[in-house]
Every structure is written in C-alpha cells, then in structure tokens.
Amino acid sequence: MLEVVGLSKSFRMAEPKWRWPGRKPVEVVRDWRRDGAWFHAVRDVSFTAPSGAVLGLLGPNGAGKTTLMRVLATALVPTRGTALFDGVDLTQDPTAVRRKLGFLSGDTGLYERLTPREVLRYFGRLYGMEAKHLEERIMMLSATLGMGGFMERRCGALSTGMKQRVSIARALLHDPEVVVFDEPTTGLDVAAAETILTLVEQCRREGKTVILSTHHMHEVERLCDAVVLIHEGTRRFSGTVEAMREAGGGGALDRAFLALVSTTGAKGAATEVTRG
After folding, report:
1. For strand 234-239 and strand 271-272, is the pairing parallel, antiparallel, or unpaired?
2. Mean pLDDT over each residue of the chain, to the nearest integer
3. pLDDT at 16
C-alpha cells in the first residue's frame, strides 16, 4: 500500500537577466507555480493506492507527474510531506523504500554493451539477490516478457520495444511491492504494448500496488481501479474511472479529462469523488 501525504517539491530558479543593451525583453507568460526565485512543481499532493490495485496517474505534459514519480522513487527529496510504503516513511528510510519499489521512468537507460541477461544479473547483485533466486527471476521474467530471442544480444542492437522489455524486467527483478510505470507503452507497436499491459494486470493479480502514468485513455479504462489527475502541480481529481467520467460531463474518457483540466484553472480546487 502506498500513502502519499501532502507531498510538495520546489526548485530554486534564477531570475532571467537581459544582457543585450537596447534589446527589448521578450514577454514571458507567467506560471502561477513560479513564486519569486522558486518554482513549485508539486504542491500538497495526497492520495492512497492500495495493494492489488492499479492507480492511474494522469495529467497533461508539464503537470508535475514526473517530478512526483521521481520523488516517490527517492531520486528527488521532497520539500514537504512524505509517502509511506507499507508504513515505511520515504523521508526517514529511503533505502528501505528502494527495496520495496520498482520504478520504470520515461528515460530509463541500459548499458548498451551488455546483453539483457548481463544487465539483469548486474542489477540483481546490486539488490543483494541470492544467485539461485536471481537466475530463477531472470528466467521467469524472460518468459513472461517474451525476451528469450534476444537475451544474449547486446542492448545497443535491440529495438525500442525490446529495450523497454529489458527495462521493465529490471524494475521487477527484485519482486517489489510497489511498481511505478511512467508511460510504459509510449513508442511501442501494438504487440509490444499488449505484452506490457498484460504484465500490469499480472502485477495487480500478484497483489502489488501499481502506479501507471499514461496519456492513453484506453489503457486507463482497461487497467485502472482509480485515477489521480495532476494539473499545474496540484491534485485536481481523485476517484474511480467512472466517477472521473461523470465529473467531466459523461461520455468519452478523453473528453472528461479535457473538461476537468480546462475547468480547473490556475489555483483551482481539487475534486475528490469516492463513489463507484
């Protein structure tokens, strides 16, 4: 179970300096998240994701989703608030959180001169996995993700879809209790995307907590038990998929998404719907 409590992340920014005398400054569109020298990328976000469920993390580009996920992955330290991973406090014991978490970011890289098997063995040793158990996990994930045909090829020679499967296997290698997928099907063909979506369903059946960030509403409808919508750094909606549809005026889910984003302008209040 994942509990996010009042999570905020701010970055210090330098004010622009105009270095060319006589040149007119370009008009800059102000973002209300900018406060003097500070940019508040995420402000006071709270939600709960239970075990054995998929929570969709939605929002337009630049909404703060990636910052939020990087905080959850312990790559960034929150400015305020915290997250509890089955009771383990992110701010108090980040090392213990890493043992419970599998994180696939949108820019996860691979060592291109290594084969997928070598990559997985390397990260398995970093996790402190016992050799026999590590090999069993590698065999299982290779079969589940259809990686058998390229396990001995160098990662630099793999296709985008193949690399994504290796990255997902790396995220799941240590059998984490909480899994965060950041747009896992972006750039994949239909067959490769289906493999990933099936794996997300398997994670739910295994009782894992899954956070799925995606722009594809058909994936939300298929997979998500609940959704959280982030816009301009704040939580604007939290509830079931059907409740989101209703809150956006009914009809197609993508239209509901656009309606919720457009009707909750800067500093708009969050909407939380708990009915099914």
Report:
1. parallel
2. 88
3. 57
